[in-house]
Amino acid sequence: MKLLPKQENAVYYLNDEVTKEVLYGGAAGGGKSAFGCMWLIQNCQKYPKSRWLMGRSKLKTLKETTLNTFFDICAQLGVSDQFHYNQQSGVITHTNGSEIILKDLFLYPSDPNFDSLGSLEITGAFIDECNQIVFKAWQIVKSRIRYKLKEFGLIPKMLGSCNPAKNWTYSQFYHPFRKKELKPYRKFIQALPTDNPHLPESYLESLRQLDENSKQRLYYGNWEYDDDPAALIDFRKLQDVFTNKFVKGGERFITADIARFGRDKTVIGCWDEFRLVRIVEFDKNKVTEAAMKIQELAEYYSVPMSNIVVDDDGVGGGVVDILGCNGFVNNSRPLDNPETKQPENYMNLKSQMYYALAKLINDSGLYIECDSGTRDIITQELEQVKQHNMDKDGKKQVLPKDEVKELLGRSPDYADMIMMRMWFEYRFKFEFYVR
């Protein structure tokens, strides 16, 4: 079979001495799944008694799609008689003893750490539609690539296919690729339907007739286009927050999201009313160091302690104790509406404040002053401010932090720091109306 030019490019990276992770995708019909299957077939033939993984979010979907593509490619290559599929065990065996193990990589609540993959040892992996799995699944699979590597003189290799998505595939691969900041061991290859001369014109026409969101993603391979109905913040308005210099200054505040036991970032924001004029971040710090930095910024910007709020969950509570400032408890009950003095229908305080922030942004009421790198991070995080379980009745709620972390591959520390600014609009104004 003659490979497409971009498939040949992928082959080069899958055989070099540096690249360990290849993301091949960007639109529908670019030959992604077929290429992944060809790669597995070649590896099984080349390395006797090796062991490979073919994965997808759900095993049922894998068997109905990727597995069928695998057998189609086998037939086209004339090697169908070399592979035997055991439906009960979910293993494809080559005549030389090599195996391809089919795996379900969905994040189940009963197995949040993917312990089911704990004893797995593989030589390499292909994950189809990897945008549908969480980043932790990708990382765990990579950690299991060690089987007979030394014997074959190989380094760990992972191949993933995907369509554009605003999750970890964007933040870990596409965005760094576009910024020319992709890590040396990672490669991204953009695949478009127009790259594949074997596609019938009728298929291309069907892609062009999709709704605008699907057409942008699946035909044009546009990673920046995301029209998710669950999103609370309009993407165009989100871009405006970095140029809304007309937003007026006024009272000054400080908001801070403190790193939990050194795992996330500590992010501190200095506010001139709704103008975020300075952002300070550091990775690992002691509680006393975070408190000292906030105190220093408060003195520089003349911010009273009553105008400072710190995430009170985890180690942030220690900072609150040291400074005597306000504490923000994410899962506490929502505050009453400052004007009506009536309860609002939110699951928790965090959801209520994110909804308020979304309204502020959509009303062009926020300005953020920062460098381009921080701008990209904030944009990615605020794009994940979405309604959780929007099809269910009940209290309004945003996506839980753990889910956002899985989508982004990191904690949304900047977004949380920005969100806490809205607490003053509820707490201060409510107290004023009560008086």
UniProtKB/TrEMBL annotation:
This is Phage terminase large subunit N-terminal domain-containing protein. Residues 21-216 form the Phage terminase large subunit N-terminal domain. It comes from Sphingobacterium zhuxiongii. It comes from the Bacteria. Coiled coil: none annotated. Transmembrane segments: none annotated. Gene3D superfamilies: 3.30.420.240, P-loop containing nucleotide triphosphate hydrolases. InterPro entries: P-loop_NTPase (IPR027417), Terminase_L_N (IPR035412), Viral_DNA_packaging_terminase (IPR052380). It holds the Pfam family Terminase_3.
